Amino acid sequence: MRPTRSDSMLHTMMAASVTVTELGFLQECQLWRLRSPHFPSKVGGRPAWLGEVGVPGPENLQCGVCMKPLAFLLQVYAPCTGSFHRTIFLFTCRDPVCHRVAENRCYKVFRNQLPRKNDTYSYGPPPDSPPPHGEQHISFQLKCGLRLCRVCGCLGPKSCSRCHKVSYCDRLHQLMDWKSQHKELCGQEFESSMDDLKLNEDELTALAKHENEEDKAFSRFKKQISIEPDQVLRYCKGGEPLWISLQYVPAENDILNCECGAKRAFEFQVMPQLLNHLKVDSLQKSIDWGVLAVYTCSANCKAETRYVQEFLWKQDVPADTM
Ligand SMILES: [Zn+2]
Ligand SMILES: [Zn+2]
Ligand SMILES: [Zn+2]
Ligand SMILES: [Zn+2]
């Protein structure tokens, strides 16, 4: 079993301070440990969904700026009183253009919870050993039968109209996969016409080229953070974020209340170390943040039957230090 380079486990460590803050570091690990039944905290790859009910669909996982599908950034497994299983998922747009100063809409955060006794996972702890051989590869289907997008691992309601064997969240990801591999795989088995896919080669080429460039930057980013041992996450539920500067600090009413009406409280922050190496890229523009502070419902309202959207505040790096 080889450790993965593209997916990294978030490893948390207790640090002594006045309020207890747990620091998250990145560590390479075996792929099977990053699957849903092991309740991982992880960076990169595809989301390891917790509950299978109410997994956010493409309409919920669009960038609020460019409307393209968001990319999974990380997830934090953070059970708390009253929630035996609890995971926070963070998504971001991979288009640097959307990451403007004071722009938070290119991020989305979801919280999901499950009681210990549930239909998906065993009551006891998961076995600390790899699953049987056949179950080791990535599954693009939830246990309940819902299919996941082949590209991003989010809910995939659209399927290839020729073979109906692969699913996608969105036409954009269908096109990406078509160009990169499915065109050949699909054609081998089916001779039928293109049906309603109606792909325009030029459109595809342009898109694939663009996506490739973005993908390169993004996978470089993920590769870099997998070898970067620095602290990338500070977890301190109910505590205070550690701001990088005095600019772009949210006022109390900037933190929107949960849809249930309860106030949201700080839970964790993602550090800019996660981005360090992306910034030295030759790319003119790159995804950038100072601090990503995640605020969650202080009432920890019901997220057993769906994924409740939470709030993220991006603090930009002050202009004079760039
Ligand atoms: Zn965007
Ligand atoms: Zn997708
Ligand atoms: Zn197909
Ligand atoms: Zn709430």
Largest sheet, in brief, is: 10 strands, antiparallel, barrel
Report the bound ligands by name, code or SMILES.
zinc ion
How much helicity do the residues have?
10-25%
Strand content: 15-25%
Give keywords.
322 residues, alpha+beta, ten-stranded antiparallel barrel, two-stranded antiparallel sheet, 16% helix, 25% strand, globular, disordered N terminus, binds zinc ion
Write the layout of secondary structure elements.
Blueprint (H helix, E strand, L loop, with lengths): L2 E13 L5 E10 L11 E2 L27 E7 L7 E8 L14 E8 L43 E2 L7 E2 L2 H19 L11 H27 L3 E5 L28 E7 L5 H4 L11 E7 L10 E8 L7
Antiparallel strand pairs: 1-2, 1-3, 2-9, 3-4, 4-5, 5-6, 6-12, 7-8, 9-10, 10-11, 11-12
Bound molecules: zinc ion (4 copies).
One zinc ion binds next to helix 1.
Explain what you see.
With 322 residues, this protein is an alpha+beta fold. The chain has one domain. 16% of the residues lie in helices and 25% in strands. The protein contains three helices and twelve strands. Strands 1-2-9-10-11-12-6-5-4-3 form a ten-stranded antiparallel beta barrel. Helix 1 crosses helix 2 (201-227). The longest helix is centred in the middle third of the chain and has 27 residues, at 201-227. The radius of gyration is 20 Å and the shape is globular. The N and C termini lie far apart (41 Å). The model is unreliable at 1-6, 14-18, 189-201, 224-229 and 277-284 (pLDDT under 50). The structure holds zinc ion (ZN) (4 copies).
